[in-house]
Write a structure and sequence with these properties.
It is a single chain. The chain is an alpha+beta fold. The chain has eleven helices and nine strands. A seven-stranded mixed sheet has the order 4-3-5-9-8-7-6, sandwiched between helices. The protein starts with a helix and ends with a helix.
């Protein structure tokens, strides 16, 4: 079995997918480092970055790791198939994982391919806005894919936000943690992503509080009841996007924190429990946001219905008042010769007075009953 596994590992790096979906031989003479997508490439030994390799290529980094130990960390941003093909061949990455990393738009997940872990994270960033409207973008999503091996970490980032440069610099200052190897990098990335979730959840909570106050406050002349439905629905859509990033990540974090894995240092696995706990808390918040927005939306629609009923009662009340003079005038407009008080001198003033008295009586009655 070991011979078959070694043979498969030797053959797989030389294959890559072409545009037609088939696997073809990869040209080993091509320099895999000729990739404009590489953001940073470094070798770490004993938790310290080698200072002499400021311009290392991925192939040179891997050669140094094999010669002197340590691990390589290669960061890429939105690589194409051609740009990623050389790196994938050099590090023996599985074609299915490579395809997911290049094309992106994946659900958060954790997959194992032989001696490599492939992890997908959805990054969430809060979009600042002066005023929440029915078309406001509240959250912006991106992706970070992480290939974790025994002696390498390859991160592939998609989206304009979510740079890992600051995280790399912060890790380089913690020599003891970085000395734990690639699993320490994987933990730091997951912790960085989940910390972003916490910050976004706090900002979204402020938006929900603002909408809730507007819905249950007294309506203004320019903002009648029910006018907040568009804002609520838009906010609900953004929360749903947030939920799609958080919920699928629960299972991978649970596996990383509970199940022993050869590629995860036991000391680092303890730290994954903290990340999983923070993620579970954010997940509860997002679920609460969704339920709260449902309640706010239902309350807003109920208020709009009540407002419409009030308007209909007022219209009906005034129609009842107007019906009195309409009926009287209609009767006396029939031009019969023999009608009561038709030729009486004070008949006209009396009819007008009767009309006014009836209208006033109906108005007071409706007002006392809350219809006006």
């Amino acid at each position: 079995m070991s011979m078959i596994r070694d043979l498969r590992a030797a053959v797989r790096p030389s294959l890559r997918k072409n545009t037609s979906g088939a696997y073809e031989k990869y040209d080993a003479t091509r320099d895999p480092s000729a990739s404009s997508a590489v953001v940073d490439c470094a070798v770490y030994r004993g938790g310290s970055r080698l200072t002499e390799q400021s311009c290392l290529t991925p192939r040179e980094a891997m050669l140094r790791v094999r010669e002197g130990g340590g691990f390589a960390w290669i960061g890429l941003h939105e690589p194409t198939e051609e740009e990623f093909a050389g790196i994938a061949a050099e590090f023996g990455l599985h074609p299915l994982a490579v395809e997911d990393a290049v094309h992106a738009h994946q659900r958060p997940k954790l997959e194992r391919y032989d001696d490599t872990l492939f992890t997908v994270f959805k990054t969430i960033h809060y979009v600042e806005h002066a005023e929440l409207t029915a078309t406001s973008e509240v959250v912006e999503t991106g992706e970070v894919m992480c290939f974790t091996g025994r002696d390498f970490v390859i991160t592939v980032r998609h989206g304009g936000k979510g740079s890992l440069r600051a995280l790399r610099h912060r890790l380089e200052e913690d020599v003891d943690l970085l000395a734990k190897g690639p699993s320490a990098v994987l933990h730091s990335i997951s912790d960085h992503v989940v910390d972003g979730y916490i910050a976004v959840a706090s900002a979204v909570q402020d938006d929900i509080d603002e909408v809730e106050i507007d819905v249950f406050s007294a309506p203004t002349k320019g903002s009648p009841r029910g006018s907040d439905a568009g804002r609520i629905y838009q906010l609900k859509r953004e929360v749903l996007e947030f939920k799609r990033a958080v919920s699928p990540l629960l299972r991978p974090m649970q596996l990383l924190s509970e199940r022993p894995m050869r590629l995860i240092d036991p000391d680092i696995q303890k730290y994954f429990r903290d990340v999983a706990d923070h993620l579970a808390r954010v997940h509860e918040q997002v679920i609460g946001f969704d339920e709260l927005l449902n309640s706010i939306l239902q309350a807003n629609l109920a208020q709009a219905t009540v407002a419409q009923n009030e308007d209909m009662r007022k219209i009906t009340s005034w129609a009842a008042i107007v019906a009195v003079p309409t009926a009287v005038c209609g009767i006396y407009g029939m031009n019969f010769d023999h009608m009561p008080e038709l030729h009486w001198r004070y008949g006209y003033p009396m009819v007008l007075g009767a009309i006014g008295l009836l209208c006033l009586t109906i108005h007071r009655t409706l007002k006392r009953n809350g219809w006006l």
